[in-house]
Specification:
Keywords: Membrane, Transmembrane, Transmembrane helix
Subcellular location: Membrane
Radius of gyration: 26 Å
GO cellular component, one term: endomembrane system
Number of helices: 16
Structural class: alpha+beta
Strand content: 25-35%
Oligomer: single chain
Helix content: 25-40%
Pfam families: ODR4-like
Family: Belongs to the ODR-4 family.
Strand order of the largest sheet: 11-10-9-8-6-7-5-12
Length: 507
């Protein structure tokens, strides 16, 4: 590579006002994706200074207001998560949320442990497992396109200095948990994550990034700067109808319910990854800018006053992605011994946001991310809730009503976050979660409760799942051709909360 650069540098010369200038050297940084041209005789120090510039992290007035509030409180060391969108050029921060303190009962249970760590000072306030759990729950509440970008810490200079090793350790631990499934992240190839330190005395903000895939990496400085002009976002929406049938082998039946659901949904998730998308009924090139030429020509004042750009997305999935017995190649391989069947039916509302300069490919990826994240989150919440109800764990024939999704505004920028509530829960049940996990102060009237509707009874779910008809229809369609596509998403479909019907086959 060095020889190639020298050869290229010797070949690249420029004529400036008739005089030949010195050749340049081309350098490429893998982590930052920067390409830099330097004087052929530039020192290594000059090159390092250019590459050490790091990423740009942009924030808006909403984030600055939250930082000001944190600095004024001046409590003990405060740690939380940074929420936003990561692009190839920069990171865009839209919200920061404190990790809540443990309640009295949990604190009492770990009293002996905390007593033995009093000498650690600020590090004793940083509990790795607790912060990781908070980050996981916050991830479930994010729309498509939004991710956890890093962690922040607010404290005195002494507290921040003492906690630095622990903060680095927790940052790596958080993204080890989040990155277990790459489909949960919009840009999984971007491995740089933010560590933001805010001093309560001087109000100095120090922003660094770490490559969380390299435990030996050192911190790189990042440019923490306010966004220029008002924040503009594109909103993507789709309603996804699910009607899946899964046959489970006797061996699979001995596993936990969550694992059974994950395996059963895997063919559908593979089809979702390969799905084609229509934006407002139109197929567009993936590299094309999402904003139209008319949108780009608007003045900043007009862009601020104009309503948010919204796109309705239709997803076209491969025909054979709805069968739990299909392999990646499309061949049907059912279990040799079927011990149970699982049907998943319902309609869910999905939503994503991308930045103003996003491409069509980024927009499609954001809505697919939300579909995957929403389905996965509902199943996890349902199974976690079942751990508290022992009778349901041993019921051989049961209908599980998955929680429905509600949305809440994030400031006045048109962005929304979400929560999941069960049938019979009211808006006030979400207010507590939104406040505790995200620090959002919203009223019950601000929450969108009607985007999805729970079935009136379990029988409504059962009636919607006709196993024999599904098998017959799927077999007939597969015999006609495997390359067909099924339009399964349309914003015109009335949303109905999804349910899972689990039937144990008897001898």
């Amino acid at each position: 590579a060095s020889a190639a650069r020298r050869k290229l540098a010797s070949a690249v010369t420029f004529q400036l006002f008739g005089a030949q200038v010195e050749p340049l050297q081309l350098h490429y940084c893998k982590s930052s994706k920067y390409i830099v041209l330097l004087h052929a005789h530039s020192s290594v120090t000059s090159l390092k200074a250019v590459f050490d510039m790091g990423r740009t992290v942009a924030y808006d007035d909403h984030v600055q207001k939250l930082i000001n509030e944190l600095v004024q409180v001046k409590n003990s060391l405060t740690v939380g998560v940074i929420i936003g969108q990561s692009t190839q050029q920069r990171d865009i921060v839209v919200h920061i949320a404190n990790t809540p303190k443990k309640d009295d009962e949990e604190s009492q249970e770990e009293g002996d442990v905390k007593q033995s760590h009093k000498s650690l000072g600020a590090q004793a306030d940083i509990e790795e497992a607790w912060i990781c759990q908070h980050a996981k729950q916050v991830t479930r509440m994010l729309p498509g396109g939004m991710d956890i970008l890093g962690l922040f810490a607010v404290g005195t200079p002494e507290e921040l200095a003492a906690a630095q090793p622990k903060l680095r350790q927790v940052l790596f631990a958080v993204f080890k948990v989040i990155a277990k499934d790459q489909r949960m992240s919009l840009n999984s190839e971007m491995s740089d994550r933010i560590q933001l330190q805010i001093c309560t005395l001087t109000r100095k903000i120090t922003c660094k990034t770490f490559d969380v895939t390299d435990h030996k990496c050192s911190a790189r400085p990042a440019d923490w700067k306010p966004a220029v002009g008002p924040s503009a976002w594109h909103r993507l929406e789709t309603s996804l109808s699910l009607d899946l049938w899964v046959a489970l082998s006797e061996e699979r039946c001995r596993q936990g319910l969550l694992r059974q659901i994950q395996v059963g949904l895997e063919p559908f998730m593979r089809g979702l990854h390969d799905a084609r998308a229509l934006l407002n009924g139109e197929a567009r090139p993936p590299d094309e800018s999402l904003a139209t030429a008319t949108d780009r020509r608007r003045s900043p004042r007009a862009a601020k006053d104009a309503p948010q750009n919204q796109y309705l997305v239709d997803l076209l999935l491969p025909l054979d992605c709805g069968s739990g017995g299909c392999s990646a190649g499309g061949e049907v391989h059912g279990p040799t011994s079927c011990g149970a069947s699982m049907s998943i039916a319902g309609t869910i509302q999905c939503r994503g946001f991308v930045h103003a300069k996003a491409t069509v490919q980024e927009a499609v990826k954001a809505i697919k991310q939300d579909v995957y994240r929403s389905i996965t989150s509902r199943c996890e919440i349902q199974c976690e809730d079942m751990l508290l109800i022992e009778d349901e764990q041993h019921d051989p024939s049961l209908v599980h009503e998955l929680p429905k999704r509600v949305f809440a505004p994030l400031g006045d920028r048109g962005l929304t976050l979400c929560d999941y509530i069960f049938h019979g829960d009211a808006a006030c049940d979400s207010l507590e979660a939104l406040q505790e996990l995200l620090g959002l102060d919203v009223s019950a009237g601000d929450i969108e409760l009607d985007t999805e509707h729970s079935p009136e009874s379990n029988q409504q779910v059962i009636d919607g799942v006709e196993t024999a008809e599904i098998i017959t229809e799927a077999t007939e369609q597969l015999s006609r051709g495997r390359n067909m596509l099924i339009p399964i998403a349309s914003a015109a479909i009335a949303a109905l909360g999804a349910g899972i019907s689990y039937l144990l086959l008897q001898d």
